[in-house]
Amino acid sequence: MGTGKKKLSAGALGLFLTILPIASALICLGIGRYSLTISESIEVLLSPLTGKEVEPFAYSTIYMIRLPRIILAAAVGSGLSCAGTAFQGLFSNPLATPDTLGVGSGAAFGAVLAMLLGLNLISIQLFALVFGLLACFITYNISRKNGKSSIIMIVLSGMVISAVFEAAVSLMKYIADPEEELPVITYWLMGSMSRANYDNLKLGLPFILAGILLIFVLRWRLNILSLNEDEASSLGMNIKIMRLVFIIASSMITASSVSMCGSVGWVGLLIPHIARMIGGNNNNKVVPISIALGAFFMIVMDTFARSATAAEIPISILTALIGAPVFVTLLRKTGGAWS
Amino acid sequence: MIFEVQGGTFGYKDTLILNDINFTVHEGEVMSILGPNGVGKTTLLKCMMGLLKWHSGVSLLDGKNIKTIKPKEFWQKIAYVPQAKGSAFGFSAIDMVTLGRSAHLGTFSQPKEEDRVAAIRAMEDMGILHLKDKLCTEMSGGELQMVLIARALTIDPSMLVLDEPESNLDFRNQLIILETIKNLSKKRGISAVVNTHYPEHALKISDNALILNREGRNIFGKADEIINEENMRNAFHVQVHINQFEFEEKDYKSVVPLYLV
């Protein structure tokens, strides 16, 4: 294995991973009941710049409906994959997911509460964010003992907090109006990108992007965090602060995506694992690969969700139904060779 | 560099584990810590490096209380080599060794070419460059131990702190690790504090030794003076015989455990 050859293939991989989400986005823009070819999609996309006349219906379909959805899908896919990678590194546990800290359930509880109170979309997002971070904060504090928090304590308290918030969500479903509110809540919990619009994106996207950026610039440090505590400290890193930064970044991503599109399962587990199979365990590579693959995966899933049948399929059903067999196949093939 | 511990005391709740620990390590010296299982050897290493806090007493680096030294600065001088245990993720050896550069890098920076070079050089010094792309999870205990020492060397430290570096290894690998520690101290002036179960190993490589026993009576002194039959009996409750012999015109000492007392 010559280094020259390796560098070349790393470059090629980088190029492929950059093109993949962009190409899939362009193709998926044209897919739907009103379908467009790629060149038509690009023409419409660029029309504000080129000033070219395009059909108003095509313009509004692309700009008002599909583009915000695709942006949301890409951000959520990248974000949850990034958060998954971060949690797995943080807990040195390949099975940790964005839900490990109870952030997912906390955010879901906040959102459902806001829905029951009849609040508007912006409030739903804020509630999800606040309760997501609250869940994370409680988990972190329960796990602290004598100023130290061990990985196992974090995982256990995360499970407890998840259970509490899930029970609270069930309780609210129980008392919700079965005609009006219950279907909305249930459907929302299954996940959907259909509420995507620019106002939503403006509020939720910055949190996701900030979280991704933080994890991206600190990705090499994640390698050190995955070692045992004393070892990590002895490498001259303030692990308390670094852990907190990763937890907050990942929670921000999770809460924000839950608030915008409900619970989307599997991505945070599936994508980082595929990324490790492709590029090895160094988070220097795992994080960027996860970002690219996550965006690609989610764009494709959401396009399928909205266009496969006349009615929309909830996204978390799709990610599980398609993600699980893909994951199992990969596992069987590689025998978990990433570890 | 001089590293000192003065009056170090540590315990959990009611039980005192370490009592009035005193020792000094000068530049290029090797000190061994000897004692039976569970007497607190690893705890001592953690306390002396500030990973656990002394209840009373201090660790001094060049006369300065290590509490007052910035962690980053401290860890550029002191390198910790933990017991070789597997981690959840299989990093390749080169990636693992490069992690040693952490204390020299800014929080947001990635390892650069020079850090890679430092890692390669450290692996070369340890004679393990051929393991470069092997995953740490697929290595033998001896290989992993060498990788961890190489990682410590990329720090360019004044002192290594090694936790039972030669336990769980076969004859040959034990010798390799011991020779490496001795060479680093004699040729590059890197001091070492080494935990070990084997009095023989302590005699082989160390200038000084610290013997811990359960009664809390600790003995610090020149290794070949204090590692004697009486002190071993007190610390381990084992009668040993220390055998001195010559082989190919070189002096050797062996420690033979005879019976329990």
Give a brief description:
The complex is a heterodimer of chains A (339) and B (261). Chain A has 339 residues and is mainly α.
Structure description:
The complex is a heterodimer of chains A (339) and B (261). Chain A is mainly alpha-helical and 339 residues long. Chain A has a single domain (19-334), classed as ABC transporter involved in vitamin B12 uptake, BtuC, CATH 1.10.3470.10. Chain A has helices at residues 3-29, 38-50, 56-90, 103-116, 121-143, 151-175, 181-190, 198-217, 219-225, 229-234, 239-261, 267-279, 283-307, 315-334; strands at residues 144-145, 148-149. Chain A has a two-stranded antiparallel sheet. In chain A, a hairpin with a 2-residue loop joins β1 (144-145) and β2 (148-149). Chain A is globular and about 65 Å long. The termini of chain B are far apart. At the A-B interface, α9 and α10 of A face α2 and β6 of B.
Radius of gyration of chain A: 21 Å
Number of domains of chain B: 1
The CATH H-level homologous superfamily of chain A: ABC transporter involved in vitamin B12 uptake, BtuC
What characteristic shape of chain A results from the CA principal axes?
globular
Q: Beta-sheet strand percentage of chain A? A: under 5%
How many DSSP-defined strands of chain A?
2
Which fold name corresponds to the CATH topology of chain B? Rossmann fold
Question: What features would you highlight for this structure?
Answer:
heterodimer, A: about 350 residues, mainly alpha, ABC transporter involved in vitamin B12 uptake, BtuC, two-stranded antiparallel ribbon, 2 strands, globular, disordered N terminus, B: about 260 residues, alpha/beta, Rossmann fold, six-stranded mixed β-sheet, four-stranded antiparallel β-sheet, 9 helices, about 35% helix
Map the helices and strands.
The complex is a heterodimer of chains A (339) and B (261).
Chain A: H1 3-29, H2 38-50, H3 56-90, H4 103-116, H5 121-143, E1 144-145, E2 148-149, H6 151-175, H7 181-190, H8 198-217, H9 219-225, H10 229-234, H11 239-261, H12 267-279, H13 283-307, H14 315-334
Antiparallel strand pairs in A: 1-2
Helix pairs in contact in A: 1-3, 1-13, 3-8, 3-11, 3-12, 3-13, 4-5, 4-6, 4-11, 5-6, 5-11, 8-11, 12-13, 12-14
Chain B: E1 3-12, E2 15-25, E3 30-34, H1 41-48, E4 56-61, E5 64-65, H2 71-77, E6 78-81, H3 93-98, H4 113-125, H5 141-154, E7 159-162, H6 171-188, E8 191-196, H7 199-205, E9 208-211, E10 219-222, H8 223-226, H9 229-236, E11 238-247, E12 250-260
Parallel strand pairs in B: 3-8, 3-9, 6-7, 7-8
Antiparallel strand pairs in B: 1-2, 1-4, 4-5, 9-10, 11-12
Helix pairs in contact in B: 4-5
